[in-house]
Input
Amino acid sequence: MGTLVDPRTRYGPGSTRALKGSGRVTADSGRPWAEAIKFDLLLHLAAFPLAYFGDLLVAKVRATPPPSFWHIWVRWDVVLYLGIAHHGYAGPRSLPHSVAFFPFLPLVLRALLGAGLTGVAAGLVVSGVSMLVVFAYMYRLANDVWPGTGRLAILYLCVFPMAVFLVAGYSESLFLTGTIPAFYYARCERWWLVVPFAALAVGTRFAGIFVLLGLLVTFLQQPRFGKRVWEVAAALSLASAPLFAYAVFLWRVKGTPLAYFNAERLGWGRHFSWPVSSFFRTLHHHADPATHSHIWDAAWRVEVVAAAIGVAFTVWTVRRWELGWAAYMAGTLGTLMFSSLYFSIPRMLLSLFPIPLLLALYTREHPKVGPYLAGGMATIAAIGVVTFTHGAWFF
Output
């Protein structure tokens, strides 16, 4: 049976890559976690003071009350997730169109709230703990694909321009907690270990569907994949269970399993549109004349730039013959580029984990570029921390 294997790579017929990867699951168990703890602490020790003192400076300039050290992190979607955790999807106090947010993060928040944590603490705890897993498996995956790139990959994720959403109580950190280990174990051909992580991604965000697609393509790219078809089919079927469970829940409480799409359309104006129309609509979009703002106009242009960056990195993964990654990235990008208007694409890039991996590979091969790239990304990330925690829009 033919495969999608690139004969120029080690990941091909007769390769021992899978066996080596499987061995590293236990052999490297200490180093990835040590690196994860270090980078997780550095990320939070940088973000918390930066957010507070940055907002304090802005408050003094604008002569407004000083910020709270913790509650500045309850902004935008964090409020929505906490609202779902408190009131559910269908209660009398539930938020309109809340079913556009998948249930796993609200469920975890609800459990922490029940344990006595405040809303802001619950969100920060989920993100902090999740990032330990994300960094550890980013290290493993990077070193498995391109040895010696593990620390660089974590670094580029830490300084990613939208890294504020890894700290705040958003779904990005929990989603990556499922996504990166799922791809790592798929690469090691340990499909029963893929199941819980892929299921976590599927139950956290709609893009989990494309995680399953990417895992399937990863399997098809493996040598002699035909011998394990039923095992992988069972694993991916189990991993998709949260999606079907959520659809049944929506059918019961909203009358249709497609309530998610209705919520996206009614709450955020998102619906299917041909990509050329979406592109030009976004490119020429302006803020409402009643509230015209050059900042908002610039934000729409950044959406277009972010989409181009996402496409470029997707092509790069294809050129590196990482077709599973490419399928995941293309599907995730496509949902927004086939939408009525580009929206939150810069933040969505944060979920495309191959980006920091590819940057790590590039700067390992071109070390002089690394400091400038990391410094530029960190500067944008710092601006994003202050902007988001101050309550202004940051994608």
